[in-house]
Amino acid sequence: MNIYKHHAPKFLNKGYSVIPDRGGQKLPAIKEWSKYCNQHPTQEEFNEWSHNLPSTNISVCLGEASGIVALDLDCTDDAVIDLIKHMLPPSPVEKKGTKGWTRFYKYLQGQKTELVKHNGEVVIELLSTGKKTTIPPSQLKGLNYEWTGEKELWELSPSDLPTIPINLLAQIRSKLTQHFPDSYIEGTNIVNGRNDEMKQLIVKLQGSGNTVDDIIKEMIKLDETFNNSLFSDPTENHHTEKYTNAGRFYFSVLNSINKENLIKKKVYDIPILSTSVSEPDKEALLVGKLQSKGINVMPKADLPTPIGALAVIQNWILDNSYIKQPAFAFSAALSVLAVAISRKFVFEGVCSNMYILNIAPSGAGKDAPQQKVKEIFFDIKKDHLLGAGDYVSDASLTDSLGSNVVRLDIIDEASGLLKCVNQGGATYNNKMADILAELYTSSNSKFLGRQTAAGRQGEAYRPNVNLLCSTTPAGFSEGVTMKSLEKGLLGRFLFFKGDYDAPANRVKAPTKLPQNVLDMIDHWCGFKPSGGNQLAGITQEFHLIEATPAAHEALEKVFRHFDDMRRSTDPTHSLLPLISRMYQQMLKIIMVHAVSRCNKELPVVNEVDVEFGHKAILYIFNVARELISDNVFSGSMEKNVMKVYNIIKAAGAEGISRKQIYRKTRNLTKMVRDNIYNDLLANEQIEQYNNKMRILNDTRN
């Protein structure tokens, strides 16, 4: 019987993450089940398990996703049970299995699995993230699991359940030690020893929003239960004043927590002082709305689906690519129309010139979109709009502007360019970043060029230089630093990230872009605007794009949102240059989308264009944030730590040996590598298992 199929919906509807076990067993019926401690099964997964598994039991995954933990009593020693039973908190939800009982409680942030043993036998176990428990009406050895409490689990939400006292297992261990002095009392390797037990207390209290004052008070209370005080131990501290030592220990643990938050891209934990933080601010801190350094939470956004010519170009590129990369096909389509309309259109003082950077490993399909862009301009005989494939100096960038003021420079491997413009180099290269930044902002004014011995070179009115670049993650990491982000050039780029695992497909019959779309691109390349303004006494011809009232209303809302982000972001934050230009970058995408939608008619921006541009820029910003977080570092040590961490992460649940890591990090000394291992192990970001290193999140229980 498929018990999971018939009973899972009522648990899923209450927010519990439930999975199938094998029929008549407690073993999971699916692979990689432990990930459902952190996420809920999708509707598709539920359907698959319901229809493809003929016989199942049902389990609830514990921890973050379900919002619950379980207390599992398996002890059969009556003397031990009599001693601790009054210490065990009640719960309205309890189940009985083949032996003992299991009670369910509300999950607290940071609550981890731990147990207490007496003479080698498990007395009681707290089950949290990474664990599951089989629940009624599952069957095992011919017996049915039963609910024995006031309620069944599915009848209550996680928030309706009580919580477990924070020091419960420590208190039980202490009680057993006092009453059975000749027995061997132990905990798991998760909570083992004074330091680890104290650390777990801090994690739990910090995650529950307690103030520093209250946390230190609880730390002192726990310390008094130890046989040898941690904070009054002269071998552990320079002095025996316990409050100072407790405070030092607390901030040391908080520092480790935030190192882990940095690597995992989570919101920082902030110490809450009862004397300086109001209740509203305390709540805001807990939900991540107030950060002393950082940016407001951005909504996640998928790559939007365009309308009109953009969609046709994107799909044509995908159909003719061995490795289909929708993000790169979209960025290539954007660049085509951006160059076609170039400086002929202005919207809110902005022209359509774009700097685009596509990032994916070698062989992942970056080249095909670039080649298809070239093919389009060759087919309409506008290849004069294609500029350089690389820059050898700042002079090569500027001196051709007089004859090629509107152009698209397609740079296949941009790591050298990034390294040159961002980290300096020869004297003839060190101004390239400044020139690229000035060219970008001069698209509706005058670029003054550069001063040489022969006079000023490269002057141009309203230059429209577009870049379509690509590089690898390694090239991006080598070419970009935190310092270069502060300079602002990268804030002018639109970032696109490819699918690193996209499969290759045969292109059986290459096709041409439909003639009507080629005609439309050709039309805008040759379009002659009738209006314009004077710039330095010279008439500049362009068409001012108008917007509907609904579009203006939508633009105002987005503008206010982006401006609030800018003003609330720490001035030193690495993403501030990107945030400051989000609205301007969005306007460029909106212009292109309006032209794409209107075919050969003069475009008018409507709310559809605004919605598309908004979604696109949110997607691009999230990509940029992820790329910078994973690949850009403030120093060599941080870069080395992330390199080792990512190598271990890439190995997955199987793990990787130290020898294998050495082969991938030969540039690091043994001392540096060992220090990184120790730091990652101490912060519980990795574990050592069967002589291999693996990420804790990839542990399979």
SSE inventory with pairings:
Blueprint: H1 3-12, E1 18-22, H2 43-52, E2 56-61, E3 68-73, H3 78-84, E4 94-96, E5 101-106, E6 114-118, E7 121-127, E8 132-134, E9 139-140, E10 143-144, E11 146-147, H4 168-179, E12 185-187, H5 194-207, H6 212-223, H7 242-263, H8 279-286, H9 309-319, H10 326-341, E13 345-346, E14 355-359, H11 367-379, H12 394-398, E15 406-411, H13 415-423, H14 432-441, E16 446-447, E17 450-452, E18 455-457, E19 460-461, E20 464-471, H15 473-479, H16 482-487, E21 493-497, H17 515-525, E22 532-535, E23 538-541, E24 543-544, E25 546-547, H18 549-568, H19 576-580, H20 582-598, E26 604-605, H21 607-631, H22 636-650, H23 658-664, H24 670-682, E27 686-689, E28 692-695
Helix pairs in contact: 1-2, 5-6, 6-7, 9-10, 10-11, 10-17, 10-20, 13-15, 18-21, 20-21, 22-24
